[in-house]
Amino acid sequence: MCIEGGIRVRILQEAEFRKSIKGMETVPGAHFYLFFGDEDYTKLADTNAVVQAVCPDPSVRMFNETRMDALNYTPEKLMDAVMMQPVMAEHRLVILSGIYLSAMKEEELRALLSVLSQLPDYDYTVFILSVPVDGMDPGVMPTAASPRTEPRPSALLSRFAEYLTPVLFARNSPAQLASWVQRHFRSGGVQASPDFCREMVRYCGSDMFRLSSEIHKLTAYVRAAGREQATPEDLHTVAVEGTEFGAFDFSNAVMAGNTDAAFRVLEEMKVRRADPVVVFGEVSRIFCDALSVRLLSDRGLSANEIAASLKWKNAGRVAVVQRSTVRMPTERLLTAVRVCADADLTVKMGGKDYAALEQLLCSL
What is the mean pLDDT of the chain? Predict the structure, then answer.
């Protein structure tokens, strides 16, 4: 519990929240949450766990679950979803995700907060607002490196904490990730030593979406070989090393107008079996950042002002983005972002090839 501007803000840690999920549908009281922090994979996993707890019957789940994101959210639609009565169940679940609170105008924030202020009138609704990484400035929060840091929530977080219980999804340390990797191998019927799990985190990176994908591949490979123990040879034969390099090389080639180089990077990523979902996510973020910098630059903001507006710690990052996009007109950046937005849903719903990246390249 901490106090910000005279307001008591209770911030739950993810582990504490996870323990409360089981039996949530039978526990009286408000269930209105704000998911924030650096670990989007765990936000998604806990959201799905809440769905299973609150809507255990799949035959009526479609009537008792509403999901919205930045593409289809309006305050009016959200209010309508909150007001809907549950069907053959005690609760309805409303999930709003992908909203960048830090990018909203004051009138947009007030409209959203107005809806949230009415949640207690509909206590049959379980509500989750899941903010992506960098979607808001939360203030000072505990981290894996400094777990005992006293939380000092930002003014923005405090405003939302008046209506929602904040849940912090802090980035896991390498040791925590290694333990998580081992548990997931075990659940798939494969044994992995602590040393193996630490090496996997070092080799594949700390992105939990990527690690989950590699665990599934390795589990299938080991079991198909008739074994139960994963080995370092399995890891380096099957798993893919961190893929950020491909995303940056691909995006830089596109922004420089070098189509041949972009196709070469794309072919290399295919050969290396880079996860297209991960790569597309990185590419989308790069183009969105580039467009934000361009639009703010066109408004006359300095590099320091742009960095402050985007919550970047280093203004040098702005200069790097400006140099990489100098040959790309604003219209092409807008087209790239639109193509990414149009393809995002397809990719997240199971697109396992590079069609979205090829479509992006051919459209520019």
Answer: 84
